[in-house]
Structures are given as structure tokens and as C-alpha cells.
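Thread amino acids onto this structure.
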């Protein structure tokens, strides 16, 4: 996406005529904005060319709101895979709406967008401060979740029948795309329903978003797995600890976990191809490491090395959300490593650890809890102000409003960037493990 041509205008349902019920000493005006590009030369070039500077609307409570709190009904849904912090966001939304805006009608949609399809028979649950008071102590989602596409028109029919005024959607890239379609259908019918997204992806791969919630917790939990792998590797003759963690299209978790726990010797990520065999390939580099140090820790993201696996009859499978089903690079590496060392007659002790589902399902750590609380509060402010077709996110340290259409997955680790260079320095692995 060429962000220089992007429209960051936030849609609104109409004039805000109701004084805010929020008792704070400050309010955020709509004309408070931050520059999209903070590069000095870029700013000077635009200024000298009389170009309109691209900017983003800052999040926060508005002095006047669109919805009358006693008459407002809010609904919350969680979609996609589980992630640390979902319950924290739900709790923050409910507490802010109930205690700060005096909204008394808040419901939860069970099992993702399935909950808006009558055929599935999922019941709607009432959300009150008593219901959500302690949910942040648990992982997962108190509303549960699901994947897969649902009929947009049917979902909007249900929102209309339920008399929902504000619809909060917590989910990842696919959820945000569906949320945008729901917004368009609502606008086509000229309904006064605010749709607010809260981005969730543990892989931290959404463009324009500094950090998605659950990412800090994922790093902390990944570090625990690395520590165990290191202990196992050093606890046996010629020990190898192999850890596979999340990261379908980006290696952000792997990279940051490796830097947080400097016990990793090889980091394999989707952004960088590698070869298994050959004098400069991964296996030969691993062999050299084992001959010199007699132990090794390997960290691989789940989307790395997919080119080294063959699919039956070339068949490509996808999950209910349309995502490509990845083949297990962890098992592939384990088999390749064991085969290589058997071939050269060197005995090794390899331990394979896959903590992915354990990482996804834990409660948020303190850092993520703070972040989730802020996202919930700012989303509530945006919804009550009648904003729609947008999400709340952290951009260069500021909470901002972003149109749903501009936030897509695709943020990757730059193989020539500072972060990856720091990984190379920390691990000692070669810049390339390809034979060309």
C-alpha cells in the first residue's frame, strides 16, 4: 500500500449533540492530529511543495458524543485465534461503557461472527461489571471465538433486530476485513450503527500498528521455552534444543524472543529463505557449531522454510478463514537434523519443543494488560462519539483512529534492518545460509 495516497479520514454517523458523561478534565478535539511521516527531510519537502501533510486523528474522549448513554446498546465479539489479553480488552470496554458513560445494555456475541448467524443457535450473553470483573485473570476469551466467513447481510440483519448501536469487533486481519464489509452494509442501509475494530494478532504483523496486544506476553512465554531448550541442550552430550513458535508470515516473535534470551544460536524466519544442504546450508552450519561448542539452540517461526516441504499432489489447503495451512517446519527440521548427523556418524541428543498453543492461551502479562486496558477505553470513546468504520491502534507511541481499510497484515522483519542485524550479532549465525 502506498500510504502517501491514503485517506486517513475517519467516518462519523452524524453531528454530536450530547454532552459527554465522562468526568475528565480534558477532552480530545477532532482536529488534534499527528504527522504520518516523521522524517525531517520528508516534512521539509512537503512543506516547500505546499503539499498537504498526511496526518492521523488522535484517540481520546470527545466533549460531545453521538449516542445518548441510557438508550445505547453495545455488542462485543471476539474472532479468530486466541491471544493473551482478549479478556482484558473485553473487561476494559465494559467497565468504561458502564462506569464512565452509564451504558447499561452491553452484550457479548458468543463464538465470533457465528454468534450473529441464527442457524448456529449461539446465545447472546449479558456483560456487566460483575460478569467481567475477574476475567482478566484468565487466558482465552470469555466470549469464545471462531474462524470462517459468515453472511454479511445476515449479520447486519441480526444487529438491526437486536437494536445494537455500537458494535466492537476484536480480531486480526481477516476480522478487520469482515468488519469493513459489515460497515459498508450498514452504511448502504443508512443505519446508525457504529462499528469499531480492535486489532488482535499475536504475530504483530499488522501494518501501521506499533504493536498488537498479546505480543509482549508471547515473547515472555517464548523465552521460557528457549530457557528449557537451552537447559536440555546443555544437559546431554551433543545436545540440540529445537523450538518452534508462532509466526505465519513474519518472524517478529522469534526475533524479539531471541534478543530477550541470548541463548539462541540459529533463528529461522519466514522473511529469509535458507537451504538445508550444501556447504553453506543450515545443516552444515549446525554441524560446525556442534563440533565447536557441543550444544545448540534453534528457534524457528512456523512459517519459515515452507519451501522445504512438499504437499500431497501439490494440494493447497486453507483454514476456515482462508489462511494457507502451513506444514510443520518443526518436524521437518527435526527429521532433517537427525538424518544429517546419522549420515555423518555423529550422535546427537535432540529435544523438540512446540509451545505455540500454550503461549496463545495464557493470561496477559502486566505490559499487555496496561495496553489492552487503554485500547478498550479508547475504543469506547470512539464508539460513543459516533465514529465508525475504524479501529484504535498505537502509532508511533500515540493512540490514534485508523480507517479499517488501511490496516492489513504484511509488516515483516526487514532482513537488512537493525533488528535482524542485532539477531545476527547475538546468535553468531551467518548472514545467509544459501549456497549462492
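Threaded sequence (436 positions):
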Amino acid at each position: 500500500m502506498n500510504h502517501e495516497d491514503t485517506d486517513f479520514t475517519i467516518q462519523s454517523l452524524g453531528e454530536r449533540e450530547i454532552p459527554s458523561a465522562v468526568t475528565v478534565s480534558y477532552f480530545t478535539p477532532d482536529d488534534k492530529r499527528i504527522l504520518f511521516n516523521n522524517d525531517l527531510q520528508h516534512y521539509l519537502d512537503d512543506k516547500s511543495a505546499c503539499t498537504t501533510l498526511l496526518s492521523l486523528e488522535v484517540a481520546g474522549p470527545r466533549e460531545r458524543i453521538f449516542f445518548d448513554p441510557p438508550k445505547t446498546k453495545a455488542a462485543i465479539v471476539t474472532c479468530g485465534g486466541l491471544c493473551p489479553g482478549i479478556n482484558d480488552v473485553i473487561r476494559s470496554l465494559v467497565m468504561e461503557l458502564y462506569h464512565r458513560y452509564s451504558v447499561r445494555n452491553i452484550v457479548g456475541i458468543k463464538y465470533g461472527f457465528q454468534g450473529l448467524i441464527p442457524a448456529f443457535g449461539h446465545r447472546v450473553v449479558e456483560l456487566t461489571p460483575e460478569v467481567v470483573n475477574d476475567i482478566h485473570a484468565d487466558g482465552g476469551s470469555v466470549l469464545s471465538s471462531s474462524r470462517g466467513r459468515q453472511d454479511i447481510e445476515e449479520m447486519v440483519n441480526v444487529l438491526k433486530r437486536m437494536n445494537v448501536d455500537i458494535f466492537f469487533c476484536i480480531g486480526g486481519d481477516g476480522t478487520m476485513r469482515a468488519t469493513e464489509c459489515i460497515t459498508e452494509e450498514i452504511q448502504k442501509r443508512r443505519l446508525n450503527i457504529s462499528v469499531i475494530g480492535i486489532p488482535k494478532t499475536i504475530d504483530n504483523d499488522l501494518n501501521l500498528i506499533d504493536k498488537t496486544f498479546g505480543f509482549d506476553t508471547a515473547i515472555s512465554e517464548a523465552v521460557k521455552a528457549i530457557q528449557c531448550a537451552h537447559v536440555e541442550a546443555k544437559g546431554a552430550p551433543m545436545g540440540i534444543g529445537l523450538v518452534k513458535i508462532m509466526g505465519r508470515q513474519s518472524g517478529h516473535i522469534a526475533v524479539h524472543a531471541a534478543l530477550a534470551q541470548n541463548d539462541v544460536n540459529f533463528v529461522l524466519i519466514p522473511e529469509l529463505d535458507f537451504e538445508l544442504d550444501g556447504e553453506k546450508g543450515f545443516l552444515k552450519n549446525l554441524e560446525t557449531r556442534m563440533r565447536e561448542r557441543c550444544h545448540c539452540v534453534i528457534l524457528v517461526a512456523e512459517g519459515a522454510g515452507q519451501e522445504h516441504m512438499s504437499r500431497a499432489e501439490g494440494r493447497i489447503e486453507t483454514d476456515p478463514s482462508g489462511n494457507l495451512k502451513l506444514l510443520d517446519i518443526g518436524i521437518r527440521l527435526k527429521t532433517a537434523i537427525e538424518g544429517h548427523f546419522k549420515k555423518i556418524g555423529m550422535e546427537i541428543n535432540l529435544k523438540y519443543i512446540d509451545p505455540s498453543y500454550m503461549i496463545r492461551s495464557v493470561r496477559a502479562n502486566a505490559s499487555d494488560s496496561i495496553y489492552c486496558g487503554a485500547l478498550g477505553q479508547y475504543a469506547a470513546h470512539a464508539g460513543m462519539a459516533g465514529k465508525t468504520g475504524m479501529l484504535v491502534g498505537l502509532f508511533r507511541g500515540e493512540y490514534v483512529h485508523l480507517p479499517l481499510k488501511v490496516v492489513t497484515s504484511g509488516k515483516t522483519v526487514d532482513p537488512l534492518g537493525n533488528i535482524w542485524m542485532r539477531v545476527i550479532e547475538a546468535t553468531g549465525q551467518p548472514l545467509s545460509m544459501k549456497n549462492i
